[in-house]
Amino acid sequence: AQSVTQLDSHVSVSEGTPVLLRCNYSSSYSPSLFWYVQHPNKGLQLLLKYTSAATLVKGINGFEAEFKKSETSFHLTKPSAHMSDAAEYFCVVTPFGYNKLIFGAGTRLAVHP
Amino acid sequence: EADIYQTPRYLVIGTGKKITLECSQTMGHDKMYWYQQDPGMELHLIHYSYGVNSTEKGDLSSESTVSRIRTEHFPLTLESARPSHTSQYLCASSESRGNYNEQFFGPGTRLTVL
Questions:
Q1: Could you give the number of structural domains in chain A?
Q2: What are B3-51's pLDDT values in tens digits?
Q3: CATH number of the domain that A106 lies in?
Q4: Domain range holding A76?
Q5: B83-113: pLDDT as tens digits
Q6: Do B31 and A51 touch (CB under 8 A)?
Q7: B13 to chain A nearest CA, in Å?
Q8: CB A23 within 8 Å of CB A111
């Protein structure tokens, strides 16, 4: 069975400090993995995606994620948080050839001055 | 910025009304999707379509119906709205090619049924 677990429902950081949003997945087949961000009253925007190429994936706005097959993880990081990063972040998996996205429950990131 | 649009953005209606949530995309994508998202929760797929005249129910049971008469248009209808239908509805689309499905999302419709 395919599933996604986001280990933290809320993360709070100070502006300028690193961000770590954790995601573990379960997939029977070679998965594609995504991180989406959702700002209040907005649709979801793709941050980055892993599709079996380089395991370290760089996305928009300084975010990156590393695919670790041995740990079945795809954690999202950013070296220095900005106030505009405050949003809901969703880790998403889709197994190879599977036509649906499987969403995690989301992590709400708060950034304090 | 993805070219996928949803109207209305916000809707407050009374119980028993028939409503249609509109979704259109200008990217020529064959695949389109409807998700339901309650506050602070993950998205659940309620309908999807792989092309014109193709519609399927998603993982979450929904009383809504959809149609796909044109590639760019994927409206969702509730024949008789109830308070339990209060939620946010997100539309998405993706290409048919490739081994992964990067989906592009619309801004959503926040529905409140009184």
A1: 1
A2: 899 999 999 999 999 999 999 999 999 999 999 998 878 889 999 999 9
A3: 2.60.40.10
A4: 3-112
A5: 999 999 999 999 876 656 688 999 999 999 9
A6: no
A7: 19
A8: no
B69 token code pair: 């008469």
> Rounded to an integer, what distance in angstroms lies between the CA atom of residue B39 and that of residue A15?
26
Inter-chain touch B31–A99, beta carbons under 8 Å: yes
Q: How far apart are the first and last CA of chain A?
A: 41
Q: Do B101 and A46 touch (CB under 8 A)?
A: no
* Cβ count near A71 (within 10 Å): 10
CATH number for the domain including B56?
A: 2.60.40.10
Please tell me which residue of chain A has the smallest CA distance to B46: A100
**Beta carbons of A32 and B101 less than 8 Å apart:** yes
Is-cis flag, bond preceding B83, omega within 30?
no
Q: Is A100 in Cβ contact with B101 (below 8 Å)?
A: yes
- Domains: count for chain B: 1
Q: For strands B87-94 and B109-113, give the pairing.
A: antiparallel
Give A109→chain B minimum CA distance, Å. Answer: 12
* Min distance A18 CA to chain B CA atoms (Å): 24
Q: Sorting pLDDT into bands at 50, 70 and 90, what band is A2?
A: confident
State which residues form the domain around B25. Answer: 4-113
Nearest Cβ partner for A43 among B40, B48, B90: B90
- Residue B24, pLDDT score: 97
User: Which chain B residues are within 8 Å of A32, Cβ to Cβ?
Assistant: 99-101
Task: Indicate the average pLDDT of chain A.
Answer: 91
What pLDDT digit, counting tens, does each position of A31-79 carry?
889 999 998 877 889 999 998 778 899 999 999 999 998 899 999 999 9
